[in-house]
Amino acid sequence: MAEVKENLKAPPTERQTSKESSPEDLESTVNSAPGDESWTMVSESSMPDDMAADGEGENSKNPEWIPELRQALDEQCGLFEVCRIASGRVLPEDLRVRAWQACLDIPWNADEQSSNFSSWDGMFSLESQSVLREQCKKMIDKCDLETEVEKLSAQSDIESVITAFCSTRKVDYVPHSGWLEILEALVHFELPTSLLYEFFSVILKKYVPKDGPKNEVIHHLFRLIVLYHDPELCNFIDSKRVTFDKFSTTWFASLLAASCKVDTLNAVWDIYFQNDDPFLVMFLGLVLLESQRDQIMERKEDSKEELCTFLKEIPAGMAPEDVVDFYEIANSYLVTTPKSLREANWTTLFGSRPVSPTKRLHIPIPQALCLPVTTDEIVTAATRHSGCRFFVIDCRPPEQYNSGHLVTAFHLDAQLLIQDAPAFNAAVDRLLASQKQAIEANSVAGGEHLCFMGSGFEAEDQYVHMVVARMLQRHHKYVSVADGGYEALLFYIEANALEADRVLAGTDVKKAKGKQTEVVAKPTAVTASSSFFGKLTSAMKTQLPIVKDKIATYISNPQASTSSAPVRHVSADDRPRKAQYRPQNVFVFDEEDEDYEDKLDLSDGDLQNWKEFIRRPDVLAHFECREYVSNDQAVPALLVISETDIYNFRPSADQPEMATMISQHSLMDVLKIVCRRKIPELITIKYGTMEGRDVVVTDIERFYIAKSGDAIKAMKLQILKIISENEGRQFEME
Amino acid sequence: MSYAYLFKYIIIGDTGVGKSCLLLQFTDKRFQPVHDLTIGVEFGARMITIAGKQIKLQIWDTAGQESFRSITRSYYRGAAGALLVYDITRRDTFEHLTNWLEDARQHSSSNMVIMLIGNKCDLESRREVKKEEGEAFAREHGMIFMEASAKTAQNVEEAFINTAKEIYDKIQEGVFDIQNEANGIKLGPEHASPGVGGGGAGARGPGSSSQSGGCC
């Protein structure tokens, strides 16, 4: 475990220290009334490093936050306040229930009010009622409750809650669903039954993955994540014929309640609820496996069942003092995992937010050979400040690559693997060396994360699969495949009206300059129009002969292919140098970004359709609000938060869909977000830069936002994400 | 090395029946009792001689898990031969043969030669599937059948080579259109000039057919 931590600990960034040194006198520039609570957003709280440093000793060393949290909870604060004050720490026992309640967004009067619990008719008439009763009794018997009365009341509470939950949803109780374990963890707090019900149903709704009929997506997802970070371990478990659902079902279904000791579980949930990310449990699962990696790998002689039992029990070995560290590592894994999987499966598993079409995956998760990455993530990776960087390896036949390919993609002739294995290995080695160079040169084409791209057609992609399999067999981590292949890329370019020659390079693309996208599609003889799947058949017909010809030339002339292929097809050798000396060619995305700004930085009075704007894939949230343009004058405004920037729009008075962009600030320029406890809806955002040791405030905006907590949370999380990802990247490059 | 023909094979069957072991025994002549699960697909090649002709076998070994079926399917296309493997000590692997066969027939060229192999025949004491059952199943579905052991190497050579002979015979009979690579057959460099065409003069020599018949 220690080793893992060592590897993952990110160095503190300058940003952090600079924020902390923000001089207090800045406060005077904001019109905050005396006595108002204000806070510096970035410097305080939840830096991954803080979390690590705090740990367990925190409560005694620096306990000021506890009274603060108590007071905030007395004032019935929400998730945001709890996160701000507790900053990812383990919570004190006496505040735990109320803090959880705040984090889970359970109404403060849930116990008195008519909650969903009261809509239950009180009938214990589930089909499997007797099974449920039996299991409740068994569970309570092993609980350390003192009197019989307590036991009976706890047992009845649990049975009531589950019965009410099932009855109101018209479903039957399913044994081994993890529900009892969740309730067991909650019953210690002696909550009123209706409140217990609220806790239970919110935890289920928010954090327990709801899966397909076969309940399989989550385990395949988990396996893919393990495979991505540790192919050797994953292959070991696979080779032992232990499928991931065998040991991780209870982890996920009970949010680790089934496997952790009580005090550990409390700490786990303390931080889990603060993080407010349902996918985190999979990364915690990965940390749990990694923490026992050596022990797992030593169990070569174990039977399938023995290994399965061992794996299942790993969480039981976690101590409360490990928890903060585990989260720190889990978060590092999270930021070094392409996010396509999360985005595409959020709805399936946690059913709350819709998946935008560009973020859907073509391949069903259980069939994925390795982690799939959407075209959207690959293409936008270069423009984003945050997220994984990809080293894209195009595995299509050389002539297809030459006629058109992603501008940052390197080429590897997959068929070489069959033709001439040593030549193929040499080509891979050269590619990996190029990858290293590209990363060192900080080129957009560089990235730790290998992404293999095929054509997107089954018949041809057998070669890509083979290359991917080969990389995984060699235990190469960070191996992903471009979902939908080159065809999906063409489709994406068209669907998003991108200029093809900025995203693609190649002979046919150059010809296409100025003629727009349909010409670009020519290399594959498919016009990039109509539906993506509709084109499959015709494209296969047209592409197959090309591949066959290629096989023909190779097979009939193996000598020639051995000597020429690696040199000719793996353009890897020269590309990083290009990236270094002629960045204008490679940094195409940056150029595009500038163009974007040009288009958007309209002079005042230029209207644009904001409803369209907020549909942009990088927009995270938007808030209709009012901006205080002076102390006593507020005008309607629209605050838009994207992955990289904060936009301020002024809606048009007469055209409801149109708005003028007043400002655009990078999230990284946010110095402070001030909110007042007395008027929590009023927030002040200060933008600026650090010049030496001085803080230069360049702009201040004040908004009155009904959902200010959500707005602040969105900005804060994104800023933290950018920072932690930058840290991660800096570290990776060292 | 030059060769007259290249045949493409695919090995299919449930996970754990010993597909990779059969391949390893055939290409490397060794047995590895503990090995990693096949990830996706692996690849092996070996040269054999049939009727005095050098034939290169290019063998694709696939992962048996249900979830990778869609990847496996892409390898049926363009395979001239398939080894469908079950484990004589595990009844379920025998019962799944129908599914495998359906998959294979649906996604491959209709001429693909399928050889049914009951593997692990060295483990007689743990046998769950009788040899007769295997024979009957193969007969019913028009396959060649053989019990083999990747561990003792019994019948491993034969399994691969008999399949190749069957393919070779089909070429002689003109069943396979060897100009169409979708059938999983390629003419070697010496035949490659388009002028020769057809089955190639050498392939139809009288000696070759009699010799191949004798071996069977």
Automatic annotation (TrEMBL), chain A:
Main location per the UniProt record: Golgi
Gene3D superfamilies, per database record: Rhodanese-like domain (3.40.250.10), Ypt/Rab-GAP domain of gyp1p, domain 3 (1.10.472.80)
Keywords: Developmental protein, Golgi apparatus
Region span, Disordered: 1-63
Positions of the Rab-GAP TBC domain: 90-276
Location within or outside the cell: Golgi apparatus, trans-Golgi network
Occurrences of domain Rhodanese (ranges): 386-494
GO annotations of cellular component type: cytosol; trans-Golgi network
One GO term (biological process): retrograde transport, endosome to Golgi
Record carries keyword Membrane: no
UniProt keyword annotation of Cytoplasm present: no
InterPro entries the UniProt entry points to: Rab-GAP-TBC_dom (IPR000195), Rab-GAP_TBC_sf (IPR035969), Rhodanese-like_dom (IPR001763), Rhodanese-like_dom_sf (IPR036873), TBC1D23 (IPR039755), TBC1D23_C (IPR045799)
CDD domains, per database record: TBC1D23_C-like (cd20788)
PANTHER family, sorted: TBC1 DOMAIN FAMILY MEMBER 23 (PTHR13297:SF5), TBC1 DOMAIN FAMILY MEMBER 23-RELATED (PTHR13297)
Entry protein name: TBC1 domain family member 23
Source organism: Hypsibius exemplaris
TrEMBL record, chain B:
Gly residues: bias regions: 195-205
GO biological process terms held by the UniProt record: protein transport; vesicle-mediated transport
Annotated InterPro entries: P-loop_NTPase (IPR027417), Rab_GTPases_membrane_traffic (IPR050209), Small_GTP-bd (IPR005225), Small_GTPase (IPR001806)
CDD domains: Rab2
Keyword Transit peptide: no
Region of interest (Disordered), residue spans: 186-216
Residue ranges with Low complexity bias: 206-216
Subcellular location: Endomembrane system; Golgi apparatus
Entry keywords, A to Z: ER-Golgi transport, Golgi apparatus, GTP-binding, Lipoprotein, Membrane, Nucleotide-binding, Prenylation, Protein transport, Transport
Pfam families linked to this entry: Ras (PF00071)
Cellular-component GO terms for this entry: Golgi apparatus
Domain of life: Eukaryota
Membrane topology, from the record: Lipid-anchor
UniProt GO molecular function: GTP binding; GTPase activity
NCBIfam families (UniProt xref): small_GTP
UniProt similarity note: Belongs to the small GTPase superfamily. Rab family.
Protein name: Ras-related protein Rab-2A
Species this chain originates from: Hypsibius exemplaris (Freshwater tardigrade)
